[in-house]
């Protein structure tokens, strides 16, 4: 028993000297948790890298998913210091938890097809052609809500084979051959490059999603979160977003 007690004491001492907590506090690092819409994955990864360069000892931990999904996670206690939504509706669902949201970008929809557009899709109505498998976003997600508004404006209801929980999931189904076409954001189509063909329709220009960003009321480090928001809103962040195809706020 005495040997076990001594071993346990030694283990405690060693851990006190060398163990570190998940937040990196013992190693001198700070973690900033940023939850962002799936369509922001490429741009926010770049912005996070820039933020880390400007802030020694800070690690930005990114979480990407459909905006509605992220809101539910935040409400359930998921760690988040900053939230960037693909629409204002989902930001508003956080109520007072979101501190002074600001619009930082805009985005519109587009059709993506398999490379070369083998089904000869030219318009929104062509998504319902016989033999064409189309996928879209769930209506709870900003990309799905925008798609529904386009459908309402045009009177064309897309016969989707499946409704996905994020725009990136829609894109994946097209690039992997599980679907012939999908409705995604302009920025997602641009990021996919030659993996897809892009088809525009005049109706898409009438539906514009505004992207808000905010620090969260219960953020572990509100000041650091505010600095991240300022980077997104500033010249460097706006340049990165514009290069990816996002519209101005």
UniProtKB/TrEMBL annotation:
Keywords: Metal-binding, Molybdenum, Signal. Coiled coil: none annotated. The lineage of its organism: Bacteria, Bacillati, Actinomycetota, Actinomycetes, Mycobacteriales. One of its GO terms (molecular function) is metal ion binding. Residues 1-21 form the signal peptide. Belongs to the bacterial solute-binding protein ModA family. Molybdate binds at residues 39, 67, 167, 185. The gene is modA. This is Molybdate ABC transporter substrate-binding protein. It comes from Gordonia amicalis. GO terms for biological process: molybdate ion transport.
